[in-house]
Amino acid sequence: MSSVSAFLGRGTAMRAAAAIGLLAIAIFAVPHLAGPDWITTYTSVAIYSVVALGFGILYGRVGLISLGQVALLTIGCWAGTRLAYATSLPFPVVLLLSGAITCVVGVFVGLPALRLSGLYLALVTLMFAGATTIVLSVTDFPNGGGGFTGRSAADALTTSTPPVRRPSWANGDVAYYRYTVIVCALLFLLALVHVATKPGRAWASIRESEPAALAAGVNITLYKLWAFALASFMAGIAGFLLAAQVGVPRAITFQTQDSLTLAATALIGGIFSVWGAIVAGVFNQLLPFLFQAQWGINPNFLLIIFGAGLLQVLLTAPGGLVDQVPKDLAKLGRLIFNGVRRLSRPRQEDAK
Amino acid sequence: MIEVSGLTVRFAGITPIDDMSVTFPGGTCGLIGPNGAGKTTFFNVLSGFVKPAAGSISAFGENLLKLADYKRARWGLRRTFQTEMAIERLSVYDNVAMIHEHSGARRSSRRADVLAAIDFVGLDVSPKDKVGSLGARERRLVEVARAVVGSPRVVLLDEPAAGLPDEETAELSEVIQKIPGRFGALVVLVDHDMTLVSACCETTAVLDFGKLIASGPTAEVLRNEHVMRAYLGTEAEL
Question: Which ipTM was obtained for this model?
């Protein structure tokens, strides 16, 4: 039995080492890749990875399809912006408050999930995303004004709106990128701890079969809402990180279809693994940047690519790219290895 | 001991359980009957998935019907289902630990309890193997391990041997027979395999069309005329 427990620990240790290595690369090496105009895109990749991770937890772990995750990001962005203009609270406090406010909203959005699942839940959450877009298009983001909306009409058309503040020691784009990566890494850690412990096992049980989970003593209401709370908390924190990244958030940049694109990229990346969320962040933010800013192609073409990619994943690789690519690479490696061996064999015979 | 009295379940127009009164004294008790007799419905009443129209169930002095469904596991009720319910994406260890976590058992003894349950059912795979990678026999044993971990008081096994070849059924039979002695739990076994029921159960109750038609020592019950008629049919019924 002791050898068994040792074995259980070794895999975790190796994964932790890989994660720390990857984090070090993200913090120290990535900012030096390509030009300085890329750095804000890298920040967005980290932010959207967290949102994709929330989607992955809900769908991959609990089996709940929520198409409102980007709407929750928007709410976190709004709440954080409002707090940042209205108060002088330290940045991490505003960050946590944005997460907490979004968490409460997310739990309310999750309430229908206690009765609905599958397509119906997807529709309800998509309607929530649509409603968020509509409300936002009327109120727009706070710009330092008073009242609940925090928006002053007089300042709206000027360019004098001060940007949402960043942490004093992470004001520059590179420093803020590093700050974001560290916060996102902590959120990933939070998610991993959940998945590997009691809530994760309870979620897996609910996903497998609700009657069996009930018979096992799982409080299904509690654990479903817990999943929504976690995913929303993460989206809320990501929202304020995004607010401080863009400086002056604008309603026009958040569209209902973003929630759908996020779901598609999360599925392409892989919803059963937290690494899939990082791939989703790259697809969601880096590819549009490459298309538009680097190659001058209309980024809307990406929707077609994502659609084809989604079809491919759903049909042949339900585990997503993070699951499929290593398998394919191993297969390719074997193919090349066998090919080389076959080619070298006749030569050995000649030598004889 | 489980005492069921006057239990009646109605689903719009049909009565899957009709005024059933029976006592499961302890040890391993069989519950048999043809398809549609109400066996699984009875399990669903015990689990809290189905609310009975009338009747009461007292298990070890506890009014089971008053307990909320998800609290019955904590009380000590365990069950398996006709379809496989071991969680494919989780490891063997996590599958069993998951039950332990909601059973109210002490956290400090979790690892030892879980490994002991895996050992008890005779699983010879690594606890960290994913259940999805196991064969039918191992997955069935994982389900039994899930049913015995964390101080069970009542273990409901719903056709645990369905689809298993004879030698694996014999192996399972040995495991089931050891449950009451090892864990002090009362086992209720539903199965169509009479060899398994005879081997495991001291007493057996027989349901037919929702009515209890016989109960008592297994050997006697299986020789009972009404039971044979329910299973084999008679000319009068034809």
Answer: 0.86
Q: Which amino acid is at A281?
A: G
Q: Which domain CATH number covers A217?
A: 1.10.3470
Candidate from B72, B85, B101 with C-beta closest to A208: B85
Question: Do residues A110 and A97 both lie within one domain?
Answer: yes
pLDDT digits (tens, 9 = 90+) for A63-119: 999 999 999 999 999 999 999 988 889 999 999 999 999 999 999 998 988 888 789
Enumerate the β-bridge partners of residue B91.
B130
Same domain membership, residue A56 and residue A171? yes
Residues A208 and A335 in one domain: no
Burial B207-232 (b: 16+ CB within 10 A, else e): bbbbbbbbbeebeebbebeebeebee
C-alpha dist (Å) from residue A90 to A74, A101, A102, A253, B150 = 21, 17, 19, 27, 47
**Which residue range forms the structural domain that includes residue A311?**
14-318
Same domain, A85 and A148: yes
Return d(Cα A286, Cα A42) in angstroms, integer: 7
- One-letter amino acid at B29 equals C
Instruction: Give me the residue label for tokens 């009068």.
Output: B236
Can you count the helices (H) and strands (E) in chain A? 15, 0
Average pLDDT over residues B171-182: 92
Residue A275 maps to a domain: yes
The whole-model pTM stands at 0.87
CA-based nearest residue to A219, from B226, B29, B170, B68:
B68
* Digit-coded pLDDT (tens) for A316-352: 888 888 888 888 899 999 999 998 888 887 655 555 5
Q: Which residues of B touch A (CB under 8 A)?
A: 47-49, 69-74, 77-79, 81, 85, 87-90, 93-94, 97-99, 101-103, 111, 115, 126-128, 146
Q: Helices B166-183 and B110-120: crossing angle, nearest 10°?
A: 140
Residues with pLDDT less than 70, chain A: 1-9, 154-159, 346-352
Pairwise CA distance, residues A190 & A196, whole Å: 10
Q: Is residue A6 part of a domain?
A: no
CA-to-CA distance for B101 and B86, rounded, in angstroms?
A: 15
Q: In this predicted structure, what is the pLDDT of residue A3?
A: 45
Same domain, A313 and A344: no
Q: How many domains does chain A have?
A: 2
Domain-embedded: residue A8: no
Domain B1-76+152-238 has CATH 3.40.50.300: yes
Interface of A with B (CB under 8 A): 1, 4-5, 7-8, 11, 198, 201-202, 204-205, 207-209, 211-212, 214-220, 272
